[in-house]
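Task 17 of the worksheet. Students: predict the tertiary structure of the chain below and write it out as structure tokens. Keep your answer in the requested format; marks are given for formatting as well as content.
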Amino acid sequence: MVVRYLKIALFFFLAIIVGTVIFIVIPLLVYGKENILPDAEVVIKIQKQAKEVRDKLKISPEQNKYYEEAKKKALKSYLQFKKQRQKEIEAYRKALKELLTKKQETELTSFSPAQSFSPAHTEWKHFLLSDERLYIFMSSSVPLVTWNNYAESLDKLRETNAAIVLRGCIGGCTYFKPTLEFIKKIILPEGIEDIDFSKEGWQKELDKRTRHVQILIDPLLFRYYGITEVPCIVYAKGVSPLSGLSEGLPENLQENPQFWKICGDWKLSYLFEKLYEQSGALSLKQMAKELKNNWHHSGEK
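Model answer:
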């Protein structure tokens, strides 16, 4: 019985030895240690070989036979996109101009650092001297009721040197449509959809509905006068621009103007009086009086 168990044990022992020789010793003798048991050096060697292979296969874009064709297609797509975008901008500008004028004499200047939207009119007044300015700094975030109140007041004054100023286009100047639509609501709050332009007297009807207010898009004015909140009103005197460029560009001014500002959502007559107290400018006092004497002004906030 003991002999039988010894034979079985010997059999298992021989089997282990044979298995070791087949699966470990023979491969080591044939392929070598580095190919069977890869250590850190072997791994590094393999990575280096792989990099060499990649470098040999790597080619520059110019060597790619499809490179020139792809570049031409990309350039063509870009030019088509740019052309289409320009068409959109021109279409929006033309649409606003037609909406504001409808064959009436108006002016819409080309886009510049100081874009202006203002219907030309013969009834503009001159409370302010030629070197005086009144800037009402606003943004689309200001409640529409405030916009309407200020626009109504400016329409009553029709002062040539007074304007509402926006920092930039609504939603960015990639697309003009949101800005034009917003300005249209301010200048033509009642719209023109029901005006019959084929009938005599349409000019008077359009003029009655149009608010005579200037709206500028000029970030340079915001920077020059340090505007950090809106609404904010600036009265400036000694403004003598050298050219038609932005009056917020220091290089475009003969000298630095004096200015006073006041911020807050208040009616314009009140703000004019406060600015008058600061500056002593009689033109501000006259404009405040004009607004108070105008019975339409009773609806102002």
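Marker's comment: DSSP finds ten helices and seven strands in the chain. The chain has two domains: 2-62, 81-299.
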